[in-house]
Amino acid sequence: MTADEVTSVFKDQWNAYQWVVDNNLMGHRELLTAATSFIEDRYRDSPVAMADFGCGNSLLIPEMTRSVQLDGYCGIDLAENALSMAKQLLECNGIKHQLLCQDLFSGMPENSSSPGLIYSAFAVHHGDQQKKRQFFSKLFQQTPDHCAFVLADIMIHPHQGFDDYTQMLEQYFAKQGVRPDWLSHIMTHIRQYDYPETEETWLDIVRSSGWKVLQKQSLGPHDEYPAIFMLLEHGKVA
Ligand SMILES: C[S@@+](CC[C@H](N)C(=O)[O-])C[C@H]1O[C@@H](n2cnc3c(N)ncnc32)[C@H](O)[C@@H]1O
């Protein structure tokens, strides 16, 4: 499985994903509210550089950072089509940016300035548990003390099998009105490339990589497609 294969659905079917986001099937509305409130509180008085792993078209970024001074935004993704949408949006909003077409699991790109804030929404689940652990450990080593991390990603219920999870999800998408031709592409992608974790496993992954959990909550309007939202901080290394 290559990273290009994993991202092919986003390259070929961005409209389908956009429809899912616009209709809040994954909880982007709640994510925007929670992330904006944290960012406003924490960076009210100090400029911050931000890195976004699996940024897609950076749709939420302008609104999420409207009331703080963004000292540069670095978006990382492998879908060129999404990156060109991101470029347009960031330019329209006057956000100084760098957009990089590279594998997010490689960690912080060389030559990028050290971020005070990391953000990743619905992207890290494309790696299995080992890849996720390596990703969080790498970022912990690459970022400075007090760096914050806003993470949102999909969850599976404890003791729920993956087949049951995907079956419930397919019914949920159909009930929400996802077009049948989109649904088959979406479900093929999810069955092949998604690795949801339970809340307990997400917490263990981030904590054992060194990150301190400041806050966690469930996200998403529907029980069939739960997501976790976490605010993390780079604690002092002893
Ligand atoms: C579900 S979308 C999320 C986009 C955006 N963060 C959002 O919340 O709407 C997942 C994004 O992660 C990207 N992605 C998945 N695996 C990746 C990888 N290994 N390297 C870089 N980007 C990846 C996809 O291309 C896609 O844009």
Automatic annotation (TrEMBL):
<feature type="domain" description="Methyltransferase">
    <location>
        <begin position="52"/>
        <end position="140"/>
    </location>
</feature>
<dbReference type="InterPro" id="IPR041698">
    <property type="entry name" value="Methyltransf_25"/>
</dbReference>
<protein>
    <submittedName>
        <fullName>Cyclopropane fatty-acyl-phospholipid synthase-like methyltransferase</fullName>
    </submittedName>
</protein>
<dbReference type="InterPro" id="IPR029063">
    <property type="entry name" value="SAM-dependent_MTases_sf"/>
</dbReference>
<dbReference type="Pfam" id="PF13649">
    <property type="entry name" value="Methyltransf_25"/>
</dbReference>
